[in-house]
Amino acid sequence: MTESVLFTGIGQLVTMRGPVPRRGAALADPGLVRDGAVLVRDGRIAAAGPRRRVERLREARRARKIDLGGRVMLPGLVDSHTHLVFAASRVEEYEMRIAGATYEEIARAGGGIRSSVRRLRAAPAAELEGAAEAWLAQMAAHGTTTVEAKSGYGLNLENELKILRVQRALARKQPVEIVSTFLGAHVVPAEFRRRPQAYVDLVVRRMIPAVAREGLAEFCDVFCDRGAFSVEQSRAILAAGRACGLEPRLHADQLARTGAARLAVEMRAASADHLDHVTRGDIARLADSDVVCTLLPGAGLHLGVPQAPGRALVDAGAIVALATDFNPGTSPTLSLPMVMSLACDGMRLRPAEAIAAATVNAAYSLRRHERVGTIETGKQADLAVFDVADYREIPYYFGVHLSWLTVKRGEILYARSPVLARPAGRRRL
Ligand code: NIG
Ligand code: FE
User: Fold this and answer.
1) Which of 330, 333, 339 gets mutated to test ligand 1 (max ligand atoms within 8 A of its CB)?
2) Ligand 1 contact, 151 CB (< 6 A)
3) Are residues 59 and 119 in the same domain?
4) Are residues 303 and 356 in the same domain?
5) Which of 411, 354, 315 shows the shortest CA–CA distance to 78?
6) How many CB atoms lie within 10 A of CB 264?
7) Is 378 exposed, middle or buried (0-12, 13-18, 19+ CB in 10 A)?
8) 287 plus 408 within the same structural domain
9) pTM score, whole prediction
């Protein structure tokens, strides 16, 4: 048995305990414990609560103590929408957009996702793996302990498998938990431009079965939007995925209102993401469903467009999650604290709601809620400590790096204090 560790001196312990998933008024309840402590054994939480109660346990008295000096501890953050594996930035398009070109104009001219596809196809797997591993370490340095990662820059069998195999290799060799999603239907690749239906057939008949056979993904996603896939095509692809055991998720109504959010409800998708253009009717349907509404304010900021109606979704009673959408085209950020700031400032979410959206609800959308997303006895010891005295200061100080300690299954992934961090940067507790 490994040594037990007692995290003590937690000024605010944000447990997020309570109903899962969270919606309505319950979203704003952080399950706060002041002056808390958390006892960790074998990578799991053995006890969590008021310091005086936890410290009285016999095991706690023998445990190694890490005093957090009054800082704030959250559940390890869960990033439930990323495009982690890509070959290069699209910084040239960034400048074009600053000068006035739109995302869709650039895509129609052969840039956008298709430009990332050209570069990814040319990149060796080892190179992609090295880059993604470095990004994962950065994510951990911002408090993230679980990451969903989508394929979608390969767009043929060989290269979609290349991405998903990189993700599997990373899941095995580094400690941040990775949940894989197959996004072969990101856009129609250039070589199928004149026969999009043939590409849909390829995704349905060859790619999905191959991905499922190798056990490379848990979810199947489609970019159902103007310039990408129609509602009918998306329905066929998601149904094929489900028949092979891949649960649906959906990029929905980001660029235009196409009815994708309604498709997500119809298909009982795990998540409908973006939702910039949903109508009041769509919001009511989403709120009446168990589909998680994953909001991605990094994309709204980076594209310079109005944010999705986050406040209206929360008020209607929808299950809301927040994610970075980390990708080179629309959201080059991997900081969930920054995304929380954008959700509070630009969507009028309250800090406690933003934290619930990036922990417990995000975990639910990835079907990991029984193990991650809250700080409760029996859960994985996935913990994120911030160098603040009040949890509301995490979104309040926007763009400021406040992560102080990140722990995954009891292992330190990131520590600002040199006393806790070994030269290798990681250690088992
Ligand atoms: O989530 N909208 C589609 N997919 C990504 C953008 C990908 C890209 O531009 O490379 C998104 O915003
Ligand atoms: Fe995306």
Assistant:
1) 330
2) no
3) no
4) yes
5) 354
6) 32
7) exposed
8) no
9) 0.97
Give the SS3 label for residue 376. Answer: coil
On whether both 70 and 161 belong to a single domain, the answer is no
**234 near 185, Cβ under 8 Å?**
yes
Q: Is 329 in the pocket of ligand 1 (CB under 6 A)?
A: yes
Distance CA 93, CA 74 (A): 36
* Of residues 254, 191, 261, the one with CA closest to residue 227: 254
pLDDT tens over the chain, length 429 residues? 578 999 999 999 999 999 999 999 999 999 999 999 999 999 999 999 999 999 999 999 999 999 999 999 999 999 999 999 999 999 999 999 999 999 999 999 999 999 999 999 999 999 999 999 999 999 999 999 999 999 999 999 999 999 999 999 999 999 999 999 999 999 999 999 999 999 999 999 999 999 999 999 999 999 999 999 999 999 999 999 999 999 999 999 999 999 999 999 999 999 999 999 999 999 999 999 999 999 999 999 999 999 999 999 999 999 999 999 999 999 999 999 999 999 999 999 999 999 999 999 999 999 999 999 999 999 999 999 999 999 999 999 999 999 999 999 999 999 998 778 654 445 555
Closest atom, ligand 1, to C-alpha of 329: 9
43 CA to centre of ligand 1 in angstroms? 35
Please give the tally of structural domains in the chain.
2
Q: What is the CATH number for 90?
A: 3.20.20.140
CA-closest residue to ligand 1 atom 7: 329
The finding on whether 203 has its CB within 6 A of some atom of ligand 1 is no
d(CA 81, CA 330): 13
Task: Among the bound ligands, name the one nearest to the CA of residue 255.
Answer: 1
- Indicate if ligand 1 lies below 6 Å from the C-beta of 223: yes
Of 314, 332, 365, which residue constitutes the final position of a domain?
Answer: 365
192 and 62 in one domain? no
Going by C-beta distance under 8 Å and a sequence separation of 6 or more, which residues neighbour residue 25?
none
Q: How many H helices and E strands in the chain?
A: 18, 17
Domain that holds residue 56: 5-75+373-428
Distance CA 279, CA 399 (A): 31
Residue after which a domain boundary falls, among 328, 348, 365: 365
Q: Measured from the CB, is residue 325 less than 6 Å from ligand 1?
A: yes
Cβ-based neighbour number of residue 232 at 10 Å: 11
Pocket test for ligand 1, best of 103, 303, 327 (most atoms within 8 A of CB): 327
